[in-house]
Every structure is written in structure tokens, then in C-alpha cells.
Specification:
Number of domains: 1
Structural class: alpha+beta
Number of strands: 9
Order of helices and strands: HEHEEHEHHEHEEHHHHHEEHHHHHHH
Number of helices: 18
Shape: globular
CATH architecture: 2-Layer Sandwich
Helix content: 40-55%
Distance between the termini: 37 Å
Oligomer: single chain
Strand content: 5-15%
CATH topology: Creatine Kinase, Chain A, domain 2
Largest sheet: 7 strands, antiparallel
């Protein structure tokens, strides 16, 4: 989820934007054209007590630690999510090796300082022990809470209790072939279900099994569909995304002072433009480019175009280096031509079994979140894709250690039809039997 820095507060009335201008603006900023050359990763972590992860870290302790962290000489932005989760967002790297090395070094510095404060980072898709709470009082998060509360508690759980590994890849080219924008867009939405299943790591909530391998994904599927659905598939992803964004409800309207207003339910950005200054409440002024760009930061589909493609469906992984495997596998299946071709052919049949509706609510994605790789179709597809990724890693310059990490994960989980959530569930059963 984007941090509160996704957009600044207003200082003057905007220059109004027309519907055609909005469509053109989205076209220009959301899919940057060019061959794959860069990779990035956004890593979200829970901050838990060093000795007792089930103990809530007091806000004062966490605030002091975060202030100290901001004194570290990090090259990557380090931000906080609403529930106090930390997010390290790597800068774009020219290779997988560079991305892993930079993020690993910066995480090591973060962990060392947190240990001095009696805390540690934990990687799960959903906090397995503690209920959600909102620590940050930024107007964005107050508005989000108000907006999502209209439909129940899922929004608060997402904001305060979820964490992910988000892989960022170049959008692709307008030329036909394995790196075309249209093909990478389709691949992301079909492969996304396989990634959900293979890396599912959130089977517990407040200490109890939920019935889902990825409870985080189940929570996202219960949020506002207009805001979190993937846009309709088609030959022109730019047009599909622009229409989807304009027809999504406005979450909030920024203000110079005080709270940010939440418009009446269902008011889309397109309707705000067409109201021509006669919209309800805070939407009574005309929107401008800054309003549109901020609106885009409040859309949370599983694959989000930010110039690059941001794959948002992967649960945060346990262990200091667990995040490296989903990053490496995903990049290999997108950016190595041979592996991309294998992956595309492997996931194409999944389109027929996904059933009606877009990700993440269609049957395929729900199966992935509930069953992980115990689902036979997802298991077979994952075996093919991980094998292709392993073959591609040397071509991408991955060192022996990184190749070994992916091979170990493949042997431990993928070939056996398991995912990290199964380890968590096994440990829970053992703990229960000893009580």
C-alpha cells in the first residue's frame, strides 16, 4: 500500500482537467514504454518485540526506533504503513544482483538498529498474533478508514495488519513479442494467482487458523471491488486502465488544513469531472491533474501500473532473506525471454479455469489464496514456472547463492505442493498439541 507521501496537500485551486485530458494523462504516465532493464522491490515488515512477538510494541517505543532509523544513511526510502509496518522501497536497479545486494545491505542496517531498541522485523502476509490498529494519524489514513468502514472491517485489517513483497518491473514495449506491454500485462494477472499460491504465508489471524493459506489475499478480496479489482482484459492495457481509473470511486479530496473529505459513496472520478463544480460536498470544486494523480495512488489492484508494473499479490515472507526468492522468480519469468515464453504458455490455460470476474475475486485467485499449491492445477503450473525461472537465473547474472535459494524453495515447497503457510500451520498444530 502506498505511504502517505503518495501526494502532498493542496496549496491553491487546481487548473480544471477535462475528461479527455484525464484519459490522455493516464495514458502517458502509467505504462512507460521500453525494453525491460530495471527491477525494484518494496518490502513491508511487521515490527515486533524482540523476545515476544505476541506482545504489542508500545507506540512510544516504535516512534523512537523509527526516528533513529531515519538517521541511517539509506539510499532507499523507508516509510511507515498505517499500522506501524515498515516499508523499504528499493530504488530501481539495473540487475537482479544489484537489487538484492542493495536491499539486503539496507535491511541489515535496519535490523541491527531495531535490535538495539529491543525489536525485530517479522515477515508474514498478515500479522498472525495481533489485531489491527492504526498508529499513523495522517489525513490520508483517516480518510481511508472512513471510506473502507462503509463496507465492514476488512479495510482496517488491510491497513493495520497486512504486509507484502511487491515486485516492480518495467512495463514493456509496444512491439509484439515476449516483452510487449499487452503480453506482460496478461502474464501478470494469470501468473499472479500462481505467485499467491506459491508464496502464501498468512494462514493465522490472532493466533487461530483462518481456513486460508493467504488470509491477506482473502482480506484484499473483501475490500471495495471498484478500487481493488483488475481492469477488464483487452488488447489495449492503457485504454483499459484509464477507463478503470476514471470509473473508480474517489476515496478522498485533499485539503490544505483539517481532515480530508470523503465524498459520498460511489462518486467516480469521471463523475467528479463531469459535475463541473457542482459535485457534492468537497467535490464541489473542479478536479485538476494533482487530484487525478493522487486518485491513482488510492487504487489497489493486484497489478498496478505506475509507469512500471507493480505486482502486489505476494505475501511478505518469513526469514531475513525469504523475500529474495519471490523477487528472483518473478523477474526471471518476466525479463528472461525463454522463461517468459514458458511461463506464458503455462499460465495461458488458467484463463479458462479462472471463471467469471476479474482478479482477485475470480475462482482461480480464491483457490490460490485458500488452497495454495495443494490445488492440482496451480501446483502443476508452479512446477513448470519455477523450473523455467531456475534455468533463467544464470542468464540474468544471478550468483550461486541466489540460485541455491530458489532451488531450495522449489525443492522444499513447490515440488511437494506446499507453501510457507503450510509450515506455519504445522507449527501451530504442534504448539496446540503441547498445550
Amino acid at each position: 500500500m502506498p505511504s502517505a507521501s503518495g501526494g502532498g496537500q493542496r496549496t491553491q485551486a487546481p487548473q480544471p482537467i477535462t475528461e479527455d485530458e484525464a484519459q490522455t494523462h493516464i495514458h502517458g504516465i502509467c505504462f512507460k514504454n521500453g525494453p525491460p532493464a530495471r527491477v525494484g522491490v518494496e518490502l513491508e515488515w511487521f515490527v515486533h518485540d524482540l523476545k515476544d512477538p505476541g506482545r504489542r510494541v508500545e507506540p512510544e517505543r516504535l516512534t523512537a526506533a523509527v526516528e533513529a532509523l531515519h538517521g541511517l544513511p539509506l539510499g532507499s526510502p523507508l516509510t511507515q504503513e498505517p499500522g506501524g509496518q515498515l516499508e523499504l522501497s528499493s530504488l530501481p536497479a539495473g540487475s537482479l544482483t544489484e537489487c538484492v545486494a542493495t536491499a539486503s545491505a539496507e535491511l541489515a542496517a535496519v535490523r541491527a538498529l531495531l535490535r538495539e531498541h529491543g525489536m525485530r522485523l517479522e515477515g508474514y502476509g498478515l500479522d498472525p498474533w495481533l489485531p489491527p490498529r492504526r498508529l499513523l494519524d495522517h489525513p490520508r489514513y483517516r480518510a481511508m478508514e472512513t471510506y473502507f468502514d462503509r463496507a465492514g472491517t476488512a479495510g482496517r485489517v488491510m491497513m493495520g495488519s497486512s504486509a507484502s513483497v511487491q515486485v516492480c518491473l518495467d512495463a514493456g514495449t509496444d512491439e509484439p513479442g515476449p516483452f510487449s506491454i499487452g503480453r506482460r500485462w496478461l502474464l501478470a494477472h494469470l501468473l499472479g494467482a500462481v505467485l499467491v499460491a506459491a508464496f502464501a504465508n498468512s494462514p493465522l489471524r490472532e493466533g487461530r487458523p483462518t481456513g486460508w493459506r493467504s488470509t491477506r489475499q482473502a482480506v484484499w478480496a473483501n475490500l471495495d471491488a471498484a478500487r481493488t479489482n483488475a481492469p477488464a482484459a483487452g488488447p489495449d492495457p492503457r485504454a483499459a486502465w484509464a477507463s478503470h481509473a476514471l470509473d473508480a470511486p474517489v476515496l478522498c479530496v485533499q485539503a490544505d488544513e483539517g481532515p480530508w473529505a470523503v465524498p459520498p459513496a460511489g462518486l467516480t472520478f469521471r463523475e467528479w469531472i463531469r459535475a463541473d463544480g457542482r459535485g457534492p460536498g468537497a467535490a464541489s470544486r473542479r478536479p485538476g491533474v494533482a487530484d487525478l494523480e493522487y486518485h491513482l495512488t488510492t487504487l489497489f489492484p493486484p497489478v498496478r501500473p505506475h509507469g512500471h508494473l507493480e505486482l502486489r499479490m505476494i505475501d511478505a515472507q518469513s526469514g531475513e532473506d525469504g523475500w529474495i526468492v519471490p523477487l528472483a522468480v518473478t523477474m526471471a519469468l518476466f525479463d528472461d525471454p525463454a522463461a517468459s515464453e514458458v511461463a506464458y504458455r503455462a499460465v495461458k490455460p488458467l484463463a479458462d479455469s479462472s471463471g467469471p470476474g476479474p482478479a482477485p475475486r475470480n475462482p482461480l485467485w480464491r483457490r490460490a489464496a485458500r488452497l495454495g499449491l495443494t490445488d492440482p492445477e496451480l501446483h502443476a503450473t508452479a512446477v513448470t514456472c519455477f523450473a523455467a525461472a531456475l534455468e533463467a537465473l544464470p542468464r540474468l547474472g544471478a550468483d550461486a547463492g541466489l540460485q541455491a535459494a530458489v532451488a531450495d524453495f522449489t525443492d522444499r515447497y513447490v515440488r511437494r505442493g506446499r507453501c510457507p503457510a503450510d509450515d506455519v500451520l504445522d507449527a501451530h498444530v504442534r504448539e496446540e498439541s503441547h498445550q
